[in-house]
Amino acid sequence: MMESEPTESSHPAADVTQHVGYLIKRAQAALRSAMDKVLRAHGLTVPQYATLELLALRPGMSNAELARATFVTRQSGSVVLRGLQEAGLITRPATADHGRALPTHLTEEGHRRLAAVQAAVYAIESRMVEAIPPQRLPALLADLDRLATALEE
Prior knowledge:
- Helix content is 61%, strand content 3%.
- It is mainly α.
- It has one domain (20-152): Winged helix-like DNA-binding domain superfamily/Winged helix DNA-binding domain (Arc Repressor Mutant, subunit A), CATH 1.10.10.10.
- Strands 1-2 form a two-stranded antiparallel ribbon.
- The chain is globular.
- The N and C termini lie far apart (44 Å).
- The mean pLDDT is 90.
- This is MarR family transcriptional regulator.
- One of its GO terms (molecular function) is DNA-binding transcription factor activity.
- Residues 17-149 form the HTH marR-type domain.
- Pfam families: MarR_2.
């Protein structure tokens, strides 16, 4: 059996664990894991929580809008909405007034559940942000936005 020879890399970081994409994914995985833990105690998943947050901010969003904003497929978004509706956290009309979009709204219980879990989720973000010198945070946020924009083009 022949061993493959190492290929020469044109990447400035020889170690894959120092690549920008790897480090972003590592941070995202750590965030997701921490969020999963606190949300599980409230009977929510990360996509369900994100949906509740968005609906509190922008009531009436459609399934397609929510799916895009929570980074899931339309099919997965439908499953998330169905679960939230069955739990009594959102309402959606049976039929659309016009077009096909069904506007979604939080119920009173949805607002209560969101309020109950927000402090725990915001504490996770605070733990992340505290690891960065405050004067560097605006630049980091701008850089992350530019990275996403560069790949969306």
